[in-house]
Design goal:
Elements lengths: L4 E3 L1 H9 L3 E4 L2 H4 L6 H15 L3 E8 L2 E4 L3 H9 L4 E3 L4 H7 L3 E3 L1 H11 L3 E3 L10 H4 L4 H8 L3 E4 L8 H10 L4 E4 L18 E3 L2 H14 L5 E4 L10 H17 L7 H12 L3 H25 L2
Parallel strand pairs: 1-4, 2-3, 2-7, 5-6, 7-8, 8-11, 9-10, 9-11
Antiparallel strand pairs: 3-4, 3-6
Bound molecules: pseudouridine-5'-monophosphate and manganese (II) ion.
Length: 303
C-alpha cells in the first residue's frame, strides 16, 4: 500500500504525531467550479484549515499514485487541467493502474482518507439520490461510502439539485447518521433550510468527535455525515432557486445527460442561470465547512 500512497511531508508529520488533519476532495476543483475560482477556493480552503491549526490533505490520483496533500504547483496544474477523470469508488483502481490524472469524489476521498487514518473530511455537498432516480437509478456512490468507511464528512447538506427526501431515506436505510450542526433542519447546500428535519442534531464539535469515537467503539462500520448550514449572509433563497433547478434538470433530461456528467452539468447550468451566485455561495459554504472540519479534527486529536 505504501507504494501507492504518497503523503505530503506536512501530512505525514501530522499523522505520525497524531495532530489534526482534514481531508479535502478534488472533484470540486476539476468538475465543480470554473478556473480560476476553483483554484482560489482550493487555496482559501487550505488556508482556513491551517489557520485553525490543522493540516489540509487534498486528494488526487496522479501517475499511478494517490497523492495525499498537494504541492502548490500541483494544485495550480490540477485546477487548469482538461479532461481530468472523475474518480469515485468504482474508478479508483483503474485510474491508478493507468496512471491517469484523477480527481476524487466524496466517496473516493473517504476511501483514501481512511487508508491513512484521516478521520475528518470537509467538502461542499455530497452526492445523493437524483431527481427521477426511480427511472434513472442515479444514486451517488457517496451514500454507500458513508455507510462503509469510517470518516466524519462535513458538508452543507446535499445539493438542492437532488431529491432530498429520497436522499435522507436512503441514508437512513444505509444506517448513516445525518447530523445537523446547530439547527434542527437539514440544510440544502445553497440554502440553510431544506424544509426537512435532520434526523439528528449536535451543537458542538466536541460532541461530533465523541459520536465519531463512540461509533468506532461500538464497532459499527461507516462514517457520519455532519451537515453545516451555509452562513446566513451567503445563502440563496429556495424560492429563487427552485424554478432554476427545475429548468436545469429539464435541460439535462432533454440533452440526455447521464451518469457522472449529471452533477457537473447541473452545477454549471445553475452557475449560468444565477449569474454566478451559486458559485459565490458554494465558495462561502466550503470555507465554512473547512472551519468546522478543522474544529472536529482538533477535538478528535485531543488526548
Ligand atoms: N459539491 C460541489 N461540487 C461538486 C461535487 C460536490 O459543490 O462537483 C462533487 C463531489 O465530488 C461529489 C460528486 O462526491 O460531486 C458527486 O457526484 P455523483 O453524483 O456523480 O456521485
Ligand atoms: Mn450519479
Amino acid at each position: 500500500m505504501n507504494d501507492i500512497m504518497v503523503l505530503a511531508q506536512d501530512v505525514k508529520v501530522a499523522l505520525e504525531a497524531g495532530t489534526p488533519v482534514v481531508a479535502l476532495e478534488s472533484t470540486i476543483i476539476t468538475h465543480g467550479m470554473p478556473y480560476p475560482k476553483n483554484l482560489e477556493t482550493a487555496q482559501a480552503v487550505e488556508a482556513e484549515i491551517r489557520a485553525a491549526g490543522a493540516v489540509p490533505a487534498t486528494m488526487t490520483a496522479m501517475g499511478g499514485k494517490i497523492r495525499i496533500g498537494l504541492e502548490a504547483t500541483d494544485l495550480e496544474a490540477l485546477a487548469q487541467a482538461k479532461d481530468v477523470m472523475k474518480v469515485s469508488r468504482a474508478d479508483l483502481a483503474v485510474a491508478l493502474a493507468t496512471g491517469a490524472v484523477g480527481a476524487t469524489t466524496v466517496a473516493a476521498t473517504m476511501i483514501c482518507a481512511a487508508m491513512v487514518g484521516i478521520k475528518v473530511f470537509a467538502t461542499g455537498g455530497i452526492g445523493g439520490v437524483h431527481q427521477g432516480a426511480e427511472d434513472s437509478f442515479d444514486i451517488s456512490a457517496d451514500l454507500r461510502e458513508l455507510a462503509e468507511t469510517p470518516v466524519t464528512v462535513v458538508a452543507a447538506g446535499a445539493k438542492a439539485i437532488l431529491d432530498l427526501p429520497k436522499t435522507l431515506e436512503t441514508l437512513e436505510t444505509l444506517g448513516v447518521p445525518v447530523i445537523a450542526y446547530g439547527q434542527d433542519a437539514f440544510p440544502a447546500f445553497w440554502s440553510r433550510d431544506s424544509g426537512l428535519p435532520a434526523p439528528l442534531r449536535l451543537d458542538h464539535p466536541a460532541e461530533i468527535a465523541a459520536a465519531h469515537r463512540t461509533r468506532q467503539a461500538l464497532g459499527l462500520p461507516g462514517g457520519q455525515l455532519v451537515t453545516n448550514p451555509i452562513p446566513e449572509a451567503d445563502e440563496l433563497s429556495r424560492d429563487m432557486l427552485s424554478p432554476l433547478i427545475a429548468q436545469a434538470q429539464a435541460e439535462a433530461d432533454a440533452a440526455g445527460v447521464t451518469g457522472k456528467a449529471v452533477t457537473p452539468f447541473l452545477l454549471q447550468r445553475l452557475f449560468e442561470l444565477t449569474e454566478g451566485r451559486t458559485l459565490a455561495a458554494n465558495i462561502a459554504l466550503v470555507k465554512n465547512n473547512a472551519r468546522l472540519g478543522a474544529a472536529i479534527a482538533k477535538e478528535l486529536a485531543a488526548p
